[in-house]
Amino acid sequence: MERMKISRKRKVLIVEDDHLVSEMIRGILEELGYEITGEAEDGHEALSMIKEVKPDVVIMDIKMPKMSGIEASILIQKHFPTPIVILSAYETEDLVKEASEAGVGAYVVKPPQPAELFRAIEIACGRFDDLQELSDVRRKYEQAMKTIENLSKLLPVCPGCGEEKRDEDYARMLNMYLSSIPVEEIGRYLCSRCRSRTDK
Amino acid sequence: MSGFYANGRERSQLIIEHFDILSAVCIELNSLEDSSSVFKHIVDSAPRFKGIDSAGIYVLDSSSGEFILEYATGLPGGFVDSHPSSRPGSGLHEMLHCNETAYPCPSEGSSFTYEGSPQVFIKGLFPLIRSEIALSVMFIASSEPGALPQEIPRIMHIMLAMAKATISRIDLESSVRRSEMEHSLLLEGVLDPVFALGDNLEMKYCNGAFRQLVCFEEEGIEKAAFSEVAGLELTNIMREKFDEALDSDQGFRISTLEYRERVFNTFISRTPDGIFVLMNDISEAEQTRKKLNFRERFESLLITISTDFIIMRGSALNLGINDALLNIGVSIEIDRAYLFQFSDTLSIMNNTHEWCATNVQPQIENQQGLKPDNYPWLMNRLSRHCAFQVLSIPDLPSWAEAERELFESRNIQSLLVIPIVHGNSLIGYLGFDSVNHERYWSEDIIDLLRVVGDAIGNALVRNRMEKKLIEMYRRAEKEAQINAVLLREVNHRVKNNLSEIIGILYAQRRYASDNDDHDEFVQSLIGRIRGLATVHDMLSSSGWNPLELTMLARRIINGAIATAPDGKKLKVSISKTSIRVNPNQAHALALILNELVRNSLKHALAGRDSLRIKVRMRKRRAGRITLVYSDNGPGYPEEVLKHDRINLGLDLIQNLTIKNLQGELTLQNDGGASAKVVFRRTRTEDGTDENK
């Protein structure tokens, strides 16, 4: 058990409508060294608590009153992206598929071995981090693509006739682009004369 | 001999005379009708020639070996008397035994002369008949010695040749007559009509059968015109066929014709002088052939129908039955064919399939839901499981009044009924109606229709069995699905229970202190796990359906108080209610009640000999349910009521109420400890009350 302890103490939110099962999860997580940051009884409560306690990972039951674990997982991933481990006594293929499509990181069947739950939590967190990173890269890529698109419109020569662009539209677009450059980055865009004047 | 003729002229005159006689004899012979007369005639004719005075015939009697004088002319009486026969050894006998014509005769050394008066000189012998068993010899004689004219032997030969030719003619004519007679006899013996016509279609011959056929009773038909004897109808039919036969290369024609409701296979043959006709009456054979043909076609139809029924299922079977009724109806030329089926208990019969001929009113819609009890005669006949026919509806017995009305309402004249039986059970019947006229069905047809009845019966029973099997299979499939769901639920519940047990262990460890009694720890653990086991048992027995709250409370409380120390009196009162709670609520309530009883036993019963426990359950407004558990012990300590102190039992009661039941818990002292749990009935997503 000692080997399984994590270097960084993760905060865990338990979402479970059966009190005794909550007791079990709490007991195992405490043994594994996780911090129980809250306990919710259904999906609704989980959504409101997650905003408050900002857990590192959510342990979620599926069959719960008011809102099921799958529905709650979809909403959590949409509004408060967090790693989720499903802990359910059901293990049908359909449920596993639904959970996967809802963005769940791992699926564990009750009652879990502590090591099993540990691996599930860590894998879910790892996968979540990877996804986040991937998401950042994608966002940056999309931004870069947009910048390139904008810059290509600012070419001073028309690729059709080879004439220099002198119309008002071009001037307006150029001004708009120049004004969108953040102040802290403007130095990179200056000509040598302006740069030397600025240096002085 | 040369001196016999005075001169050449005289001789020529003689020859002419002789040939005149020969011509006369020839003509005379032609009118004779038998060989004996012919021989006699040439014997009689011999003396008509110059030099011949007498002639006769000796015939050898093979038994005595003597020649008998058969016939003679011109012979003196003495000769006839003395030589009626000639024995072997006599000169005459030896002479007669000649093998060839002997002329002039007597030849040297074997002459015979009758020495009486007048003398007779036999001058020539001419065998008439010569064979191994018969020998007849004609002789010619003269009363004068000396040779006869030299033409005589030739004339005799010519006469004999004429006689033999005449006899051949007579034999031939006799043979022809005999043949004609035999032919007539033969044709008369023929049972079929036979007749012969001449080139101009005149009657030459016909037998009795033909006369009978054409109703011709007059005696003579010869030379009568065919049309006169046969009548116009047959003449018209035959004329074309005669032409065909006459034109035919083979010289004959065989064809079939129908005349006076009979069928004839006619053989018409060209003959040298007309036409020969044989009318072979094949009416019966034709009728038999038609019957056989019909039977063959009908059997083939029934085999097809019966075979088809083997593979027919569901709607295909209905189509097949309708098709079979149509085919049978058309084949046996009836007006309506239909199928009635009985219900299993024979209480209802329905007309399920029907075929009607053109212009015959369908009845199927009027024949639904009939009660067999109302038709005792019909049911009586059907119960014998034998086919029956009603030739005339008015002839039904008086107790078949209802049936008469039923059949008359359907305009039935005659009716055939084929019961459909499977095993010993009557399952229906095939009906065949004749609407336009009364009708009789032969046993052959009935037997064949019975085969169809059996085939339809088998198909119907098989169809019913298959429907039942499909129903059973579907039921089994549904049960299997339910079982699969139940198994999944059991699996889920078991895993949940195990999780809860682990949860109890973790919770119990969390609340444990170093001062805790080990036995007490274990006992409390056992009690809680037993509570879980009891509710699991109840839920699995009910198939995870809602449980009656009273029953649940009784089982849990009785189980929990069983652990009470000996000698303590415990009285439990549980209110009766029809409230049912869903499995999750039942589970939580069972654990809550278990903890409450354990609490009562631990704290309220301590230092007392008896304890009264009461459980009251009520339905409240808006689907709320209240459960009040109370005992008559000392009540909860103040710090418990103020939530200052809490133990595992109270923690479980509180959290199970709040989390699992989503309800409210109120603890108070009211003549003892009292815990009130209020929760709502759970509603399913579609708004129905799940607890129901």
- The structure class of chain B reads alpha+beta
The best one-word shape of chain B is rod-shaped
Determine and state the CATH class of the largest domain in chain B. Alpha Beta
The computed structural class of chain A is: alpha/beta
Task: Report the end-to-end length of chain B measured between terminal Cα atoms.
Answer: 166 Å
Radius of gyration of chain A: 26 Å
Q: Helix share of residues of chain B?
A: 40-55%
Summed over residues and divided by their number, the pLDDT of chain B gives a mean of 85
Order the strands across the largest sheet of chain A as they lie in space: 2-1-3-4-5
When the domains of chain A are counted, the total is: 2
Tell me the name of the CATH homologous superfamily of the largest domain in chain A.
Answer: Response regulator
Number of domains of chain B: 4
Which range does the strand content of chain B fall in?
Answer: 15-25%
Poorly predicted regions of chain A are none
CATH superfamily of the largest domain in chain B: GAF domain
